[in-house]
Amino acid sequence: MFDTFRSDTRAIEGLPVRLVVALVVGVASMSVMLNMLSGVQGLATSELDVKPSPDVVGPGAQDLDFTVVDHKGNPVEGATVIVKSGTADVETVEAEKTGGDGTVSINVDVDLGANREDGTLVVDVKPPAGSSFVDRRENTNILVVRSK
Q1: What Gene3D superfamilies would the database entry show (predicted)?
Q2: For residue 62, is pLDDT > 70?
């Protein structure tokens, strides 16, 4: 019985053809799936950056201007800029959304603690909902300096 299988070489003749057919079908299926995935924008993300102006201020009430840009320097509409206490204090956390030009102005009342000559305000940005933007890197903090 086993001698019959050893001498039968017909099964080997069909094997390469079956492998070629499986390979062609697999490559065709893969190309269709990749075409479908290339249209999905959620896989690629772009880092946001916040540019404060001015980035050095004194204590007291004042307006701070912010521009939110993507990795190419284009303005981003609908991002939320958040200013909160770091080593300098603000009474409340302030948050505003950027307009069509990617800018926003936020009024803050900054205070330095007793015996402090300087401190910082922390700036965060929340990307617009449903966008492919992220904010993983630390943004530029605002330096608060007591003038003499």
Answers
A1: Immunoglobulins (2.60.40.10)
A2: yes
Question: In whole angstroms, what is the distance from residue 148 CA to residue 145 CA?
Answer: 9
Q: Which of 122, 59, 54, 133 is nearest to 94 (CA)?
A: 122
Q: What is the DSSP letter of 57?
A: E
pLDDT for res 15: 62
Q: Tokens 């000559």 belong to which residue?
A: 117
The arithmetic mean of pLDDT across residues 72-96, rounded, is 91
pLDDT in tens, 65-75: 999 998 888 89
pLDDT at 3 (0 to 100) = 64
Question: Looking at this protein, which amino acid is placed at residue 107?
Answer: N
67 token code pair: 């521009």
Residue with tokens 């608060």: 144
Residue 117 has pLDDT above 80, yes or no: yes
| CA-to-CA dists, residue 3 to 6, 7, 14, 15, angstroms | 5, 6, 20, 21
Of 81, 85, 82, 80, residue with least CA distance to 59: 85
How far is the CA of 27 from the CAs of 20, 32, 59, 82, 115, in angstroms?
Answer: 11, 9, 65, 48, 70
